[in-house]
From TrEMBL, chains A, B:
Gene3D superfamilies: 3.30.420.40
Descriptive protein name: ROK family protein
A Pfam family assignment: ROK
Natural source organism: Candidatus Enterococcus murrayae
Cited InterPro entries: ATPase_NBD, ROK, ROK_cs
Length: 314, 314
C-alpha cells in the first residue's frame, strides 16, 4: 500500500524569482523561500538549481516524508504533463522538466501553467474556496487567465486553455500584442493597456500629467477628473464585455480577479460587476460572484502543490 | 448484473416538430419518425404525446429491449439533468420532464439542451467523429453553440454553457437581441444578422435588391458584387474574432459549423478559416480544424441518444 502523503512542495517559476513552499496536505505552509531565476544559457541551470535548493532548504528527515512536488511554469505544458513546450521568459523550448525533476529529486512531479496554478491555488486556499467552476483573471503587465471546470484545470488541446489575454477586441485602434496579434484583450485591459489609453486620451485633450500609472489614474478618477473617469469607464467596458463573452461560453459560478490592478479593489470591481451583469446571459445574471484574489503572489505555490494532490487523488 | 443495452431512443423536441429515432448502440437507425409539437396550453401535452408516440410506433417486443431514452430540449436543463428550467418556444418553465417520462414509459431518461445534443451527435456519428474536444456552432436564424470537453457536454453552472450567440460584440450599432441584450453575436452572425447588415449596406449605398436572403448574398458576392462582398467580409470577420476568442479560452481541437448558413460551404468556411488562423493564439494556429456539420437536422436525435449511452458508461 502506498504511504499516505504527508507533505508536499509547491514551486512557482517566475521570470525573476523561483518561489518554493513546503506545506502539509491542508495547505499549511511550514517553510517558504525563494531563489533568483538563473536565465543564463537558455535557462539550462534552472532544473538543477530547483533540486539543489530543495535539498539544501529541507532537512533529510522531512525530505523522506515528501512524496511529490508541483511546479508552476510561465509557459505551455504538454497535454501529458511531461514537457514544457515553450516558456518564452526562460528561453525554454521542449524541456522534459518532469523527468528531470523526478530523476534528480527521487520524488514524483507535476507540471502546470503558472496562471492555471494560481487559479487552482485560489480555489484551494483562496478567494474561490469551496468552488469547483471558476475563471481566474490576472490583470498585471499583461492579462492572464486560468479556468477550472469541475475542480480541474482546463489546459486545452494545445496548452492554450485560459489564454484570455489574447481574445481579439474589435477596435479602430491597432495595438500590437506580445503574441504578434493586434488588439488582443491584454493590449487594452492590462496595466500597460490602461496607461496607453490614458496617454492617448491626454494627447487628444492636449493635457499632460507628470506621471501616468494605474494607481494615479484610479486616484484622479476618484477625484472626479473627467479624462481619467472616461478612460477607466472604457477600460472596464472592454474588460466586462470580454469576461461576459467568456461567461456566456463556459458559464462558471465565480470570477476571481488578481494581479496588480486588482489592488484598486472596489474602484475596479464594483463598476466591473455592474457592467458584467448587463452583458451576461439572463440565466447567469445575478447568479455568479466576482471577487478579488486573496493569495497574491503565493497563489502559484499553493496551486502547484495542490495540483500534485489532485493528480494523486485520481 | 444489469442487462446489456441493445437499443436506445433519441428524441429532439423542436418548436414545430418532435423528431424520434430508434437506433442500436452503434447509432444505426432502425426507425425514424416525427410528430407536430403541440404547444397549446403551455405545452402541457408534450410529455404525454412523446410517450404515446413511442408506444404506438415501436412494437412491444422491441420496446422491452429499450432501456433508455435521450431527449434534446430547446431550453435550459438543470445541473442534475432532471428539470427543464426554461424553454421559451414551448412555454415551459420548471418542468420535471425526466421524472414524467421515466414514470410513464418505464425506462430511464436523460435530458440535454438541443445545441448540446447536436454537438454530441456530430461527435458520435458526424463531422467530429473521433474527437473529444470540440466547439459546435449553428448559424441559423440565431447563433447557437455546444461545447464538448473530454467527451462530455459543458452544460455550465446555470445551463448557459455554449451560449455563444450572446457574446457581446463591440459595435457602433445598437442591435436588439432576443435575449434582451444589445449587439450579441447572433445579431450579426446569424442569417437574420447577415440580412440586416446587407439591407443597411444597400440603404447606405442607395441601392436595393428585390429580395435579400443569405443564399442571394453569397451568390452576388460570387458574382463580384462589391456591396455583397463587403458585407460578407465583415460578417466573417465578426464571426472569426468571436470564435477565435472562444478558441483562446477553451482551446479545443475542432470547430464544426452547422445550421442553414453552413450550406454556403467553402464560400463561408474558407474565408472563416483564413481569418481564424489570424486571430487564434500562436500555439493553436495551424493545429485545429474547421468543418461543416454532417448530420443536418438529425444531429439532435443522434446526440440525445448518445447522451444516454454516456450516462450509462459513467
Amino acid at each position: 500500500m502506498e504511504k499516505q502523503i504527508k507533505k508536499i512542495i509547491g514551486v512557482d517559476i517566475g521570470g525573476t524569482t523561483i518561489k518554493f513552499a513546503l506545506m502539509d496536505t491542508q495547505g499549511k505552509i511550514e517553510k517558504k523561500w525563494s531563489i533568483p531565476t538563473n536565465i543564463s544559457e537558455k535557462g539550462k541551470f534552472i532544473p538543477n538549481e530547483i533540486c539543489s535548493s530543495i535539498r539544501s532548504s529541507i532537512n533529510k528527515d522531512t525530505l523522506v516524508e515528501i512524496k511529490g512536488i508541483g511546479i508552476g511554469v510561465p509557459g505551455a505544458i504538454s497535454s501529458d504533463g511531461e514537457i514544457v513546450v515553450q516558456a518564452v521568459n526562460l528561453d525554454w523550448e521542449q524541456i522534459p522538466l518532469k523527468k528531470m525533476i523526478t530523476h534528480k529529486l527521487g520524488m514524483d512531479a507535476c507540471l502546470l501553467n503558472d496562471a492555471n496554478a494560481a487559479a487552482l491555488g485560489e480555489m484551494w486556499r483562496g478567494a474561490a474556496h469551496g468552488r469547483e467552476n471558476l475563471l481566474f483573471v490576472t490583470l498585471g503587465t499583461g492579462v492572464g487567465g486560468g479556468i477550472i471546470l469541475n475542480g480541474r484545470v482546463l489546459n486545452g488541446c494545445h496548452s492554450a486553455g485560459g489564454e484570455i489575454g489574447h481574445i481579439p477586441i474589435r477596435s479602430d485602434e491597432n495595438r500590437l500584442c506580445g503574441c504578434g496579434g493586434r488588439n488582443c484583450l491584454e493590449t487594452f485591459a492590462s496595466a500597460n493597456g490602461l496607461v496607453l489609453s490614458m496617454r492617448k486620451k491626454l494627447e487628444l485633450l492636449g493635457g499632460s500629467w507628470t506621471e501616468i500609472t494605474p494607481p494615479i489614474i484610479f486616484e484622479k478618477a476618484a477625484q472626479n477628473d473627467e479624462a481619467a473617469k472616461e478612460v477607466l469607464n472604457e477600460f472596464v467596458t472592454v474588460l466586462a464585455q470580454a469576461l461576459a463573452g467568456i461567461m456566456n461560453t463556459i458559464d462558471v459560478e465565480e470570477i476571481i480577479i488578481g494581479g496588480g490592478l486588482s489592488e484598486a479593489g472596489a474602484y475596479l470591481l464594483d463598476p466591473l460587476k455592474e457592467k458584467l451583469e448587463k452583458y451576461v446571459f439572463p440565466q447567469i445574471r445575478n447568479h455568479f460572484s466576482l471577487k478579488k484574489a486573496l493569495l497574491g503572489n503565493d497563489a502559484g505555490i499553493y496551486g502547484a502543490a495542490y495540483s500534485y494532490l489532485l493528480k494523486k487523488a485520481v
